[in-house]
Input
Amino acid sequence: MSAFHPHVARWFESRFAAPTEVQRLGWAEIATKRNVLLAAPTGSGKTLAAFLYSIHRLVSLAAAASLEDRTYVIYVSPLKALSNDIEKNLRGPLAEIEALASE
Output
């Protein structure tokens, strides 16, 4: 988790014992800033893998006062899963990371 911004790493470590295989392997690929397709069984953590690395990048840019008003992330999700993806893997972690950062 050392590759993540400290607030993001602290949030993840407070919620999970360790990254799943798809997260560990996915983060290494996502860090290269190439397009990445994560394929793994349901419940393996692939959505959080995509969102968490993106959150890390945004938090890091914001902390460096380098966050611009532009699109940084494009995430493609099946419509059926979109609402859950947004709530569980984006809004929830963002709110919790923000709370940790303000402590």
Notes: The two ends are 20 Å apart (CA to CA).
